[in-house]
Amino acid sequence: MTKIEMKTPLVEMDGDEMTRILWGWIKDKLILPYVDLKTEYYDLGLKHRDETDDRVTAEAAEATRRLGVAVKCATITPNAQRVEEYHLKKMWKSPNGTIRALLDGTVFRAPVLAEGIVPYIPAWKKPIVIARHAYGDLYKAADARAGAGKAELVFTDPDGKEVRRTIFDFTGDGVVMGMYNTDESIEQFARACFRYALSVRLPLWFSAKDTISKAYDHRFKDIFSELYEAEYRAAFERAGIYYLYTLIDDAVARAIRSEGGFVWACKNYDGDVMSDMVATAYGSLAMMTSVLVSPDGVYEYEAAHGTVTRHYYKHRKGEETSTNSVATIFAWTGALAKRGELDEIPELTAFAKKLEKATVKTIEEGKMTGDLVPLFKAEGIAPQKLNSREFLEAIAEKL
Ligand code: NAP
Ligand code: MG
Questions:
Q1: Which of 44, 85, 280, 308 to mutate to test the pocket of ligand 1 (most atoms within 8 A of CB)?
Q2: What averages of pLDDT result for each successive group of 10 residues across the chain (399 residues)?
Q3: pLDDT at 217
């Protein structure tokens, strides 16, 4: 069989522990037999990050900016225990944080659905993708305890002119907070959401509370709506999708009643809450994909879970593990499909879709890792628990 040729290499960021083991197996069993894989390889394993004083992480982000599409394995974010375990020079920062800061993006999280794995909200038949604005608001706020006295909002312009507004005249103890966002960041967030919705051909909802927050949330609503009208409406209509703004409480009610099948853009705090709700409702973090989309259209695909340390320690002792590789497989297929789309290699995109189908079908036929067994319910099919390697072999067979 001739292998599918690639044009531009993917940026490949290898990682740590159990996911690093799965990474190698996924490539060997599911990708290399079919694709003449081209990657620019960066080893983000903790040992190599330490050896390079974490320069490798910045280099990988730089390469992503240059080449446009990356696939990343889960990595350890070191804490004190890891510093000891790996004899680190210092407690390096989270690679995801470093990469996000350099690429300046929005994170989209989407569940992988398989028949038999029933969401806790059974009406949800299609994915709900949460797009979380990861800048400002509550996470960069200044807050304080207050006592009797006057709390004011003071804005000083560069000429020293002040504008004051009373927040509250306290007669006793209380709390007070000031938070901000920037038009630039809101606009980049909106742009990433419009682009993403177009790339997956799903309608886009944006929710906030502009009826109460008449300047703050209203600014978000206006920026989304102005950008939509000026730059995206025509493309949305051509793609047969729509953009909807609605109040956050109405969005929650609509989401619960819906059958899924939309992208839900959330302000920072709303996105924090909603992504955990949605991930839990769909069943498992190991069935959740994650992609960082930068405002200039750079994509970085990864799994939403961590390095599955407990399983890795078992693996290292030679014991059998049953670690779910679905989210990591989908990180690869997401990146390969995007590369195929950008380089106009339809066979590559078609292969990625085929691998996704084979993965889902394997589960639907009752072959799965241990984490999914208690969630699986299908008439006449008894779920079979496979070990990490057997699960990948079952997918390869299906493929
Ligand atoms: P984790 O690796 O996601 O694992 C937590 C638990 O969730 C596991 O022990 C396992 O439960 C279950 N689980 C997660 N993924 C699974 C999979 N693919 N298949 C089966 N079960 C799965 O989170 P953590 O233990 O909090 O973190 C471990 C390391 O990952 C840390 O060093 C952290 O810094 C790093 N991390 C990295 C990323 C990233 O790179 N994006 C994200 C989060 C965490 P059972 O043990 O009950 O089987
Ligand atoms: Mg959270």
A1: 308
A2: 94 98 98 98 98 97 97 96 96 88 84 90 92 87 95 97 97 97 94 92 98 97 98 98 98 96 95 86 87 87 94 97 97 97 97 98 97 92 97 97
A3: 98
pTM: 0.87
In this prediction, residue 284 carries a pLDDT of: 82
Q: Ligand 1: does its nearest atom lie under 6 Å from the Cβ of 275? A: no
Residue nearest to atom 43 of ligand 1 (CA): 306
> Whose Cα sits closest to atom 46 in ligand 1?
310
Does the C-beta of 371 come closer than 6 Å to ligand 1?
A: yes
For ligand 1, atom 17, the nearest C-alpha belongs to 324
- Secondary structure (H, E, C), the chain: CCCECCCCCEEEEECCHHHHHHHHHHHHHHHCCCECCCEEEEECCHHHHHHCCCHHHHHHHHHHHHHCEEEECCCCCCCHHHHHHCCCCCCCCCHHHHHHHHHCCEEEEEECCCCCECCCCCCCCCCEEEEECCCCHHHHCEEEEECCEEEEEEEECCCCCEEEEEEEEECCCEEEEECCCCHHHHHHHHHHHHHHHHHHCCCEEEEECCCCCCCHHHHHHHHHHHHHHHHHHHHHHHHCCCEEEEEHHHHHHHHHHCCCCEEEEECHHHHHHHHHHHHHHHCCHHHEEEEEECCCCCEEEEECCCCCHHHHHHHHCCCCCCCCCHHHHHHHHHHHHHHHHHCCCHHHHHHHHHHHHHHHHHHHCCEECCCCHHHECECCECCEECCHHHHHHHHHHHC
Q: How far is the CA of 281 from the centre of ligand 2 (A)?
A: 15
Among 280, 307, 387, which is best to mutate for testing ligand 1, by the most ligand atoms less than 8 A from CB? 307
The closest-lying atom of ligand 1 relative to the alpha carbon of residue 72 is 40
